[in-house]
Design brief:
Blueprint (H helix, E strand, L loop, with lengths): L2 H17 L14 E2 H10 L6 H10 L5 E4 L2 E4 L20 E6 L3 H7 L9 E3 L3 H9 L4 E6 L1 H6 L5 E2 L5 E3 L7 E2 L3
Antiparallel strand pairs: 1-3, 2-3, 4-6, 5-8, 6-9, 7-8
Helix pairs in contact: 1-3
Length: 180
């Protein structure tokens, strides 16, 4: 499968497994899972046929491991705007995590910290390189360091998704190391 097709399928999955499953008649279970056969049938019925082999390739080749397949079911690993409970355990984070953004967001971040916006959690990267890639999707990246260890010590909850993305409800401005 060519890269353009892989990207189109990945974006289609993101839309329907994270944000708008009902648009194609899908009903995610409480943990965000849906039967692979139901997904493939719904995609085909909405003029976006995906073969089982294409789906497998997108899930396996995605460098961010955005999707998981288990027992004939598929779900997005994180990033939902629809209600789901991923069942992730609370974990102690490393001392620092990172967040990639762009300069135009810095004024709001200085005032309000990092907020989940339309998602359930703020997404944090375990390393600067990943945060650079995340920020670069929106323009020239700016990487913020998050004092996750201090936040955890202060009682903030951290989860880690199956693909290594760290999740928390909010990062207050005082726990951010912003560029000057």
């Amino acid at each position: 499968m060519d890269e353009r097709r892989m990207i189109r399928i990945s974006k289609y999955l993101a839309r329907h497994l994270r944000h708008d499953p009902q648009r194609i008649g899908l009903a995610l279970d409480a943990a965000g899972w849906v039967a692979v056969d139901d997904l493939l049938a719904a995609a085909a019925a909405h003029d976006f046929p995906i073969t089982p082999d294409e789906l497998r390739q997108v899930v396996e080749a995605n460098d961010k491991r955005r999707y998981a397949i288990e027992d004939g079911r598929i779900r997005a690993s994180q990033g939902h705007s629809v209600p789901v409970e991923l069942g992730l355990p609370a974990l102690e984070p490393p001392a620092y995590l990172y967040h990639g953004t762009v300069a135009r967001n810095l004024d709001a971040i200085r005032r309000e910290g990092l907020r989940p916006m339309s998602r359930h959690h703020v997404h944090l990267s375990p390393d600067r390189e990943t945060a650079v890639r995340v920020g670069a999707r929106r323009g020239r990246p700016v990487v913020l360091a998050v004092a996750a260890g201090d936040m955890h010590a202060a009682g903030h909850l951290f989860l880690r998704s199956d693909n290594g993305v760290w999740l928390t409800a909010h990062v207050p401005p005082g726990h951010l190391r912003l560029p000057s």
